[in-house]
Amino acid sequence: MIQYISDAPNAPKAIGPYSQAVVTGNTAFLAGQIPLNPATGEIVGDGIEDQTNQVMKNIEGVLSHLKLNLSHVVKTTIFLTDLSNFQTVNSIYEKWMNGTRPARSTVQVAGLPRGSRVEIEVVAVLEK
């Protein structure tokens, strides 16, 4: 059975024809989050720090709706428009993950939606 999630209240609504998350079996695949304020739909901050923190808040919003938290995350992919921001993003990410160390990939991309500097997608398991 596949469940499409598009109503997580503490995360931005999808800005295209996709779901905030898809749950199948015991796995949740979250769409990539950019630093949108869920209330306004606008990008939060210009700097990588503010944007990364907002992305992590948005991920938590979707996970919380699924009755999960960041400790359920088993894989992340981080997309950066400038890989020179890697250390800053890594430091913020590490604080949010609070000791959880999922598998991860980080790549530099030419651009992200709405001029965002960072996007993060995650895969989480429903059981620990």
Overview of this structure, please?
The chain has helices spanning 48-65, 86-97; strands at 2-5, 21-24, 27-33, 73-80, 103-108, 118-125. Strand 4 (73-80), helix 2 (86-97) and strand 5 form a beta-alpha-beta unit. The mean pLDDT is 96. It is built from 2 helices and 6 strands; from the N terminus they run βββαβαββ. It has 128 residues and is α+β, with helices and mostly antiparallel strands.
Give a short synopsis of this structure.
The protein is α+β, with helices and mostly antiparallel strands and about 130 residues long. It has one domain (about 1-125): 60s Ribosomal Protein L30, Chain: A (2-Layer Sandwich), CATH 3.30.1330.40. About 25% of the residues lie in helices and about 30% in strands.
Topology, element by element:
Blueprint: E1 2-5, E2 21-24, E3 27-33, H1 48-65, E4 73-80, H2 86-97, E5 103-108, E6 118-125
Helix pairs in contact: 1-2
Counted up, domains total 1
Residues in helices, as a percent range: 10-25%
Oligomer: single chain
Strand content: 25-35%
Order of strands across the widest beta sheet? 1-2-3-6-4-5
| Largest sheet, strands/sense/barrel | 6 strands, mixed
CATH superfamily, called what?
RutC-like
How far apart, in Å, are the first and last alpha carbons? 20 Å
Return the structural class.
alpha+beta
Per CATH, what is the topology?
A: 60s Ribosomal Protein L30, Chain: A
Q: Helical region count?
A: 2
Average pLDDT, to the nearest integer? 96
Helix-strand pattern, N to C? EEEHEHEE
Low-confidence stretches: none
The assigned CATH architecture is 2-Layer Sandwich
How many beta-strand runs? 6
CATH class categorisation: Alpha Beta
> What global shape is seen?
globular
* Cα-based radius of gyration, to the nearest Å: 14 Å
